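Quick one: structure for this chain?
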Amino acid sequence: MFLRLEDVDPVRCTPASADDMRQALEWFGLDWDDEFVQSGHRASHEAALDRLAMLGILYPCGCSRKVIQQSGERAADGGWRYPGSCRDRDLPKRGWRAAGEALRLRLDPGDIEPRDEGGTDLAQDPAVAMGDPIVRRRDGSIAYHLACVVDDAQQGVTRVIRGQDLASSTAIHVVLQRLLRLPTPIYRHHFLLLEEVGNKLAKLHGAVGWRELRSNYHPEEVCGLLANLAGLQPDPIPVRPDELISDFSWQRVRIADQLLRWTGRELVRLD
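Got it. Here's what it folds into:
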């Protein structure tokens, strides 16, 4: 088991935030065999950009988020679909490294039908549903879609388990895997914890940090609550993560999203 630090965003990702994440996982009771720091593999990401440029499907884009939003087209992930305003532009003569703008991938239309072990429908024409994705941001950092696909292959990842909020990205990832001649892992997308209005439970929507949880709970209590929400045990009794391994089965894991509220001192499940 690898801990991958996805730190390609130089503004949001700092050594302090990485240390905080490690401490949170250790407090909760998780451990890992090795670490993979994404920013340390820039050469692999740039090699992927070289191949995409060679295929003639990279182009610079100077469109702001405001301009894209004004197009009024929603994407499959809930954001705004890129309307293709710059897709006829060419890279600078000196190559993609000389581009001072974001770089996008020019997608061909066509249906992609990845398989999801849990039954989530991943079929999509990403060119229609999402629009051309950014693969390198304006500040020079590598975008999530490209970095995770390249890193999955480099790490030998054969199974990807992630939240339903990322399911709509899978078709783009499969397109990149095919273009870069990389293997496609097996995918499974699990349920989300939601707040009362239906948004993903995150800091923006009422979630709290692990230090606040630590001041109110023992880690086994948090794990027990999550195991109960997931369907891995009938009651929210305290348990360590390693105690859930021996009889784990995906058939027991709930499919439906779960509502949760932080009251200021405790987590409450909303049925």
